[in-house]
Design a protein that fits this description.
CATH architecture of the largest domain: 3-Layer(bba) Sandwich
Mean pLDDT: 95
CATH superfamily of the largest domain: FAD/NAD(P)-binding domain
Strand content: 15-25%
CATH topology of the largest domain: FAD/NAD(P)-binding domain
Distance between the termini: 10 Å
Number of strands: 18
Number of helices: 14
Number of domains: 3
Low-confidence stretches: 174-182
CATH class of the largest domain: Alpha Beta
Structural class: alpha+beta
Strand order of the largest sheet: 6-5-14-15-16-13-17
Bound molecules: flavin-adenine dinucleotide
Amino acid sequence: MANKDEKICIIGGGPAGLACGVYLEKKGYENYTIYEKLNKVGGKAYSPKIEVNGEKRSYETGAIMGAITYHAVSEMEEFGGYYHKGPDFKKGEPNMRREYRSVSGKDAGKVIEPFNPKADFSFKKLIKLVKLKKQFKKLARLMETKYRGYDCYGHIGVAKGEYYGISKLVDGYEGTADGQAFPNYLEGKNPALKDLALPFKKFCEINGVEEVQRIWIGPYTSFGYGYFDEIPAAYVLKYLDMTTAKEFVGLRLWTWQDGTQEIYNAVNRKLKHPAILETEVVRIERPEGKVVVTTRNGKGEERTEEFDKLIVTTPLDYFKEYADATEEEKELFGKIVHEKYVDFIARFEEEQGPVISGYMFENMEPENLGHAMVYYHRWEDQGKNCPCTVYALRNHTGDPDIPYEKTLEMMKDDINKVLKFPIKEVLYAQESYYCPHVSPEDYASGWYDKLEAIQGNKNTYFAGEILSFGDMEDTCAASKDIVGRFF
Ligand SMILES: Cc1cc2nc3c(=O)[nH]c(=O)nc-3n(C[C@H](O)[C@H](O)[C@H](O)COP(=O)(O)OP(=O)(O)OC[C@H]3O[C@@H](n4cnc5c(N)ncnc54)[C@H](O)[C@@H]3O)c2cc1C
């Protein structure tokens, strides 16, 4: 019999931590505490306000977009009473339009149309596009048949050729979210799923769909999630499942007027116990049957409190630095790797910036590590005066990292010199701990099943980005799954 009075500690006030609070409340647990080390909630959903032409609006340095497959995020919206805009954007709303630019050769800096057969027509281009269309259809068919079950959130069983979990499919997701009933919980065996441990590049090769990487690379690599020769296909296809990928191609995306951070501000305002800010968890001890948590507040004061259960939504590779991690936890979490995703918001010289967002495909290959891959232009009505966020990755398996400062310089050069949008000032720059994942080898050897096996040991549960994928939807859904199954 579940004890709904048990005292639960949640580390982290990002999307995952707040979602744990939401789903615990839905199941009748009200004795929870969320600790957040910063003076704000939302984690990497961070949307600072910037003044342009005398008006302050939201810009994004972290999460930006969602799609029709964002079921758990919809539940967060419902809980907080704050909703997305799109996919049809009206005047005065942020927009998601984009164009593509070349960065080399005679076309350097120019707008190109790689997916339009009529622009710069050649038979070679036409044949490549026909091939792309055919392979897209082929992959869609394969994912429905050969890889049935691939679209469950999370990775439990995949390395063994099994699937368990809530399906991301649009049809059948009833989203009742009472924390207990998962109407479209799927379960089954499918040995072909083991292929998902392969790097996405290899996965495409064995299935004869190499061309589709040209579509997936935009919302995958340029969004900081790594390169296709290093990332298991499971991550790529669970985030960009066929429905989500089609929504991205068709530009049917969501974004939020006051920024994604506002989703979580709104949730936090409605929680019975809003996150306790500026309070970092600095020590965890787990003697028999208890969890003893020490926090440090903004004034440097430490406080120790006893809980019955612990939910960790923060990076597990750092868990051993403040917790009494077991040998098993140390070994498992030591295998987590993450991306180093750099972004800055730039203001341009008067009337000299871009007018919509731009993607530079050539810079999404490992050879061009550290170069600007994409810039995000949020407010169409601000035209050439709209500050833009510029993004790059600075790590790739087997290559030395590009130093952070050098990456910023390379990104600025790309924007100033190659694209010829003169930057007046950089308003905000950061590097994010991004997209935690495991290597194809660790994935194949059952890393996720080993994680599942330790859930609940020492009254501790692990949630957050590593569970399924590093986006808002997968992290909130992982919290739903953990709360649903273990509480
Ligand atoms: C540039 C960028 C673009 C992105 N674009 C998108 C997008 O378009 N769509 C999308 O869905 N997702 C996007 N994401 C990803 C999305 O923001 C993350 O996947 C999501 O925020 C993860 O939520 P989380 O709660 O697991 O982790 P986080 O958001 O990282 O939150 C973790 C929280 O824990 C706190 N914390 C850490 N250690 C402690 C401690 N010891 N004690 C107390 N608190 C602690 C942190 O301060 C933080 O607030 C983007 C992210 C970035 C950086």
